Amino acid sequence: MTPGTLVVGMNLQFPPEMYLDSNNQPAGYDVDLLNDLAKQMGVKLEIKNLDFNGLIPGLQSKQFDMVSVGLTATDERKQVIDFSRAYVPYTSVLAVKDGDTSVTSIDSVNAAGTVITALQGSSGEKLAQTTFPKATVTGFPDQNAALLQVATGRAQGSVVEDYILAQYSKANPGQIMKADLPEPLDIGYGSWGVQKGKTALVTALNSYLCEAQSSGKLAELYEKNFEVPAADFPQMPAGC
């Protein structure tokens, strides 16, 4: 870590979790949490905004100390980077064109000729591939581009976190909606990514997150940014 500075790689295109505000400044749940982390560590926070696909390679090449973009700690990713404990909960759903009531089960879209989109390189893309193995899964480097494929009828669905779908629908009413499936595609958690072997930093991050979880800080910032009552903050994994 650069002395006195915590350099964090992010992809600021996912309001309300992480985005650029009207003054072109980083904002959102992750940013609020990172500012509090930096304050607790007594260091300056520096954010580098990159495309999603450039974050893990950038971390490996030591462009920054950590990545904050809600990464799922998959076995594949664990081979090249280390992870903190979870800091944000996610619910993955299938977005379909507004008014499309034909999608009532996985089988109704898991078929040859069906196109499902997702953010390229994301856990959503992996989830789409395993959930819809018969369909054609296409990844896009931009989340909105993946959703636009559904809105314009070029794809039958898109795997996305529910909060991202809500934000897109708020900005683009009448385009897409959540498919009426019996249950979410997946419920998971995002973690901070750290350079391989940086155990001291992982330990420091985990210590901070355990304190933020027990003190209610995570729930407080989640309520502020996601507009979900703190009492409804999803239960985080045990282990503190």
UniProtKB/TrEMBL annotation:
InterPro entries: SBP_3_CS (IPR018313), Solute-binding_3/MltF_N (IPR001638)
Location of this chain's protein in the cell: Cell envelope
GO cellular-component term (any): cell envelope
Keywords, in A-Z order: Signal
Protein name: Amino acid ABC transporter substrate-binding protein (PAAT family)
Organism: Quadrisphaera granulorum
Record-stated family: Belongs to the bacterial solute-binding protein 3 family.
Matching SMART domains: PBPb
Domain of life of the native organism: Bacteria
Pfam family, one: SBP_bac_3
Domain Solute-binding protein family 3/N-terminal: 5-229
